[in-house]
Amino acid sequence: MNEQLRVLVVSHAHPTVSLGGAEIASHNLHHGLKALPNVESVYLARVGHPVPRHAASALMSLRLAEDELLFHTDDYDHFFLSNGDTQAISRDLLRFACDLRPHVVHFHHVLGIGLEALYALREAFPHAAILVTFHEYLSICHNHGQMVKRSSGQLCEAASPVACHGCFPDIPVSRFLKRELFTRGMLGLADAFVSPSRFLAERYSAWGIEKDKLRVIENGIAVEAAALPRALQGPNPRRNRFAYFGQMTPFKGVDVLIDAVSRIPKDIWGEDSCLMIFGGNLERQPIDFQERMKKLIADAGDRVRFYGAYQNADMPRLMRSVDWVVLPSVWWENSPVVIQEALLHGRPMICSDIGGMAEKVRDGKDGLHFRAGSSQDLADRIVEVLGDTQTWDRLRVSMRKPVDHVGCAREHLKLYRALLRRKLDAAMAESPVLLSHSL
Known about the structure:
CATH superfamily of the largest domain: Glycogen Phosphorylase B
Largest sheet: 8 strands, mixed
Number of strands: 16
Helix content: 25-40%
């Protein structure tokens, strides 16, 4: 097993085009793998509208690194996670993959690329190890993979064709059943599934993914120098700068956070405390949510400051002015990258007590929990930390360190090699001839 291992990492988008957690995680894995000896990693990311296809081929570079390519697709069915442009898959994707001859194909999402790409690569490379990393519940839930009921906003404990029809009355139960069978059948072609959190892995296991195929591996980040704590000034300094990082969507609970800040008595909040919002895309959200946000923002007044969208490279600079990071999501987050960033920079967190957030942020050690969706409970936590100057220092000392991207890559490499050994053993059992591509 001394031959150089060739890995194809497939992402639904490139971080330079779309700065989401899954994009960052997949890109960090690619760079982590490249840092390991005897490993060659190539990164293939889907791109689509508004970026135009440059030529007949779906493969593009856009002046990225030599080992990073884009695969253009626009004919995508979000309901079935299906790519209608199968010609581009067979003509361009497979031609590229056959030149690379990967030992491992690792999907981070099939969004945009489609389950057909997984099927095509499985058929073309029957002895390769194919993996899928789950970043949310998209394979299970048509509601943006959030597992939140559309009518009530309540968390969905278990998906089913009948329950999904309740969220989408215009879509027949039979169509949801077809979606489930198609999605689960195509995913069944993979050799293993990676989940960054135990919580998400358990959800997929309950849905029908083989438990033995599931492996929990935390996402890694590129570790850099941590931002120093904010310098405190004045006669009675407090750690009173609270920050929200992320998209301004209903699922992220930013409305819960702004409402909580408005509930804090003026004598406790004072004149020097502030909530700092780093994020955007409010204009793309449902109108009723936009209207609710406008009212909450007006009520909060100068307690809230908006700084707009940011790039991941901005985080060290932004963290210098932050004391607390707040994660108020109302859905079962998997492994938000901002948690890793907060751990790296030593900023204690206040987060919802559900899903991957509650798993990653240890209550009383990495931060504090509050009851998900409760503005009053969140306000109570903020009041507590504003009134106790020792909490921030105590939490900062007990916070764990984040997983770095090279360590994450090493864990993946162990899994890759174990899968390849297993497949080789199975092939050898069928035929004594040593497979030419095996490790």
